[in-house]
Design goal:
One of its GO terms (molecular function) is hydrolase activity. Its EC number is 3.6.1.22. With 277 residues, the protein is an alpha+beta fold. The protein has three domains: 105 residues, Nucleoside Triphosphate Pyrophosphohydrolase (Alpha-Beta Complex); 31 residues, no CATH class; 122 residues, Nucleoside Triphosphate Pyrophosphohydrolase. The chain is 18% helix and 31% strand. The protein contains four helices and 15 strands. A hairpin with a 4-residue loop joins β13 and β14.
Length: 277
């Protein structure tokens, strides 16, 4: 399998909860606001020594998130004013950061940033949440409700028919060909989701559903689980017009190209092109 966005070896990500920490000068900071993060003039994550001074931040305004090797990444949710050196960029820009390990760490941190900023108050009683002291969770001191970071399971499936692969295009948003995908509903297995999504989106049925790989996808707070499935029988595609603009069979030799294989979808497409699926 080609390297994915999360494949950062020899670097190692430690995302275990370690309790409160104070940022060191060389630690990175993710300043998160409304699906945007602050990047410096070099289009990289800023370090605490510089950004803390620029925006008059204090350690009390930071939350420790994770560590890559010996370097920690902290979250700041206070909104800051952009400068010539520091500007907000969409979270998606983190996928283009170099080195790759920093982009992945930043995207993971931004996912936690979204969770912290969208879960400030208890849904049961309305009291402000507090950080748990022993695990990554938020606890309501009023009623005791405890919540954990939200991760949405979703499937992505390569539907094959001999030497052909089915690709689709979304109606809005991402404008390149991709594989059929969708979120798992309550009460479903992942394999059930594969069969349902294929039928809903293109009106086809599949069998021999088998696991390929998985990928954390911070942009949609999802854990993508990749599968390969064989077409039951050849029949016309019935496109779900509310979500898709196109669905088309491609021979291995005619598959479109993309400039990155960091996503699970394009890794699977490239694997099919190389006769690995």
């Amino acid at each position: 399998m080609s390297p994915l966005f999360q494949d950062i070896a020899p670097h190692a990500l430690d995302n275990q909860f370690h309790g409160p920490r104070v940022p060191r000068p060389d630690d990175y900071v993710v300043i998160y606001h409304d699906q945007h993060v602050v990047l410096d003039h070099a289009q990289s994550l800023p370090r605490w020594a510089a950004v803390g001074q620029t925006f008059a931040l204090t350690p009390a305004q930071t939350t420790y998130l994770l560590t890559i090797d010996e370097t920690a990444i902290f979250l700041v949710t206070a909104k800051v004013t952009a400068t010539d050196r520091y500007r907000y960029a969409p979270v998606a820009a983190l996928r283009r950061l170099t080195p790759q390990w920093l982009g992945f760490a930043g995207a993971t941190a931004a996912q936690l940033g979204w969770w912290y900023t969208t879960h400030r108050f208890c849904s049961n009683c309305g009291h402000a949440y507090e950080q748990d002291t022993v695990e990554r969770a938020l606890v309501c001191p009023q009623c005791g409700q405890k919540i954990y970071p939200a991760i949405a399971p979703a499937i992505i499936v390569a539907v094959t028919h001999g030497d052909q692969l089915l690709l689709t295009k979304f109606l809005t948003g991402y404008d390149k060909y991709t594989l059929i995908s969708g979120y798992t509903e309550i009460g479903e297995t992942l394999e059930d989701t594969v069969r349902r999504e294929v039928h809903e989106e293109v009106g086809l049925t599949v069998h021999n559903v088998r696991y390929y790989g998985s990928q954390p996808w911070a942009a949609s707070h999802a854990l993508l689980v990749g599968f390969v499935a064989d077409l039951d029988q050849s029949k016309p595609i019935a496109l779900e017009l509310d979500e898709l603009s196109q669905a088309k069979w491609f021979h291995r030799d005619e598959l479109p190209h993309d400039d990155t294989t960091l996503s699970l979808s394009w890794t699977m497409i490239e694997a099919f092109r190389r006769y690995e699926l």
